[in-house]
Write a structure and sequence with these properties.
Length: 468
């Protein structure tokens, strides 16, 4: 048993002082005691700064980290999501397994340093550039598992079903051949990842029908049946309604909008995460909230790609659960994702301080936007990735993020003022120490792999850029 004393900690009900956190040898929190004052026995490690529950990054395409900033020059015509996608297709054709490992390792390290303690890798780059399988068919997904384990971040691997190029079972284009997969292919990847992970409590494996344009009903049904036979609690993620063209194509093909079709035809429940779900009607918004599924929101990527704004206030009012993801990783900072989640609503509605107040019994119900966002997204992200984290409470994994109390933007602040500053002061480097599953992986802003991870990442990006 290890015991820690935080001067302030964000518990499910809100900020409390003098909080003792007891962690067992497996990395689970077994007891939390606020307001202990000076009555702390010997052997307790006293933390210097305020402590938050670790955040889950529920949606990652790790390789896209190496593209950040490369698609911000106007092309010959109108630029949108679809023109960005063509740039991504060209980029991914050059990616090797060694490249994928180096990029993922550096990304996961960055994520840790900013307060993410778990990440969900929505993985669809399965094969060689010519579409042929690797000698080890699970090579690419296993490289991501290795990167996460080496860095010390918890991971949920989501091998993706990517069968078609568009609605109507249109064949994949040559530039999509690395993604080609059917249900059996994905299920073999699941089995390989589970075997490699063994009994590691900080690894989960689920499945991801990429999107309705990339996976037909029969294939999705077969994938879900196979996944349930392996693990009936495994997370299920799917892209949905990110772009208006996608919505129009889905209507033309199925007679329903993407979220409407998913909720009408698939067994959506709390295991599911609908990523983006940007373009919904009021009826879809209400139905998604009532389904128990998590809305996976990626505000900086959605802004970067011009996707649109999620109907956040109506979704929350209906009891909807949400979490945040880095997606294309133009940002690796959960505070920035949360800031833009609120700012998008402010810009749309021309009002301030919109995402406030809790809905769940025993949860935070105060007026602070920063506290509301961190607490709700941490809890929703935990649900989406199938990991017992997201709160400093007994029975959760000991994922702790200790902030630097001496940082200028945190100096003299307590309680809600801490989370409001973290999210809205626009500062970086406020995270000092990070614990994942009871193990400190970042201490004094340093990680043991800082130098080799940066070196290998620079080498890979330099080669990829040199190749065009």
């Amino acid at each position: 048993m290890k015991r820690y004393l935080a001067p302030q900690a964000l518990l499910p009900e809100g900020w409390r002082r003098d909080v003792r956190i007891d962690v067992d040898a497996t990395g689970d929190i077994v007891a939390v005691a606020p307001d202990v004052g000076d009555g702390v026995p010997e052997g307790v490690e006293r933390l210097d700064g305020p402590v938050l529950p670790g955040m889950a990054n529920l949606h990652s395409h790790a390789f896209q980290r190496a593209m950040a900033g490369l698609a911000e020059t106007r092309g010959p015509g109108e630029d949108d999501f679809w023109s960005w996608r063509e740039r991504m297709y060209r980029f991914v054709l050059r990616l090797t397994p060694d490249d994928a490992f180096a990029i993922a390792r550096f990304l996961y390290l960055e994520a840790l340093r900013n307060g993410y303690t778990a990440i969900a890798e929505f993985h669809y780059v399965h094969h060689r550039p010519d579409g042929a399988p690797y000698p080890q068919p699970a090579e690419m997904v296993l490289r991501h598992l290795a990167a996460a384990c080496e860095v010390g971040i918890a991971v949920t691997l989501l091998p993706s079903l990517y069968r078609w190029s568009n609605f109507g079972a249109q064949p994949l284009a040559s530039r999509q051949r690395r993604f080609a997969s059917d249900p059996d292919t994905v299920l073999r990847l699941v089995e390989a990842a589970r075997s490699a992970a063994g009994d590691d409590p900080d690894v989960r494996v689920g499945v991801a029908p990429h999107s309705l344009r990339a996976a037909d009903r029969a294939s999705i049904d077969a994938l879900l049946a196979g996944a349930d036979a392996i693990d009936a609690s495994a997370p299920i993620h799917v892209h949905a309604a990110e772009q208006t063209r996608e919505v129009d194509d889905c209507l033309a093909s199925t007679g329903q909008r993407p979220v409407e079709w998913i909720l009408s035809n698939l067994p959506v429940d709390a295991r599911w995460c609908l990523v983006h779900a940007t373009h919904m009607t009021a009826r879809e918004t209400l139905a998604l909230a009532r389904s128990g599924a998590v809305a996976g929101l990626c505000p900086t990527t959605e802004a970067n790609l011009g996707d649109g704004l999620f109907p956040m206030l109506d979704f929350r009012a209906a009891g909807g659960v949400y979490g945040i993801g880095g997606d294309s990783h133009v940002s690796r900072d959960p505070a920035e994702e949360l800031r833009w989640l609120e700012y998008g609503q402010r810009l749309s509605l021309q009002r301030r301080n919109l995402i406030v107040g809790g809905r769940r019994e025993g949860g935070y119900r105060g007026p602070a936007v920063g506290t509301t966002l961190w607490a709700e997204a941490a809890d929703g992200g935990a649900r989406a990735i199938g990991r017992a984290m997201g709160a400093i409470a007994a029975g959760r994994r000991a994922d702790l993020v200790e902030l630097d109390a001496a940082a200028p933007d945190l100096h003299g602040r307590s309680g809600d003022a801490i989370t409001n500053a973290l999210v809205f002061a626009g500062s970086s480097g406020l995270v000092r120490n990070v614990m994942v599953g009871g193990r400190w992986v970042v201490r004094d802003r340093c990680h043991r792999l800082d130098e080799p991870a940066q070196r290998d990442y620079r080498r890979v990006v330099g080669r990829l850029l040199a190749e065009g």
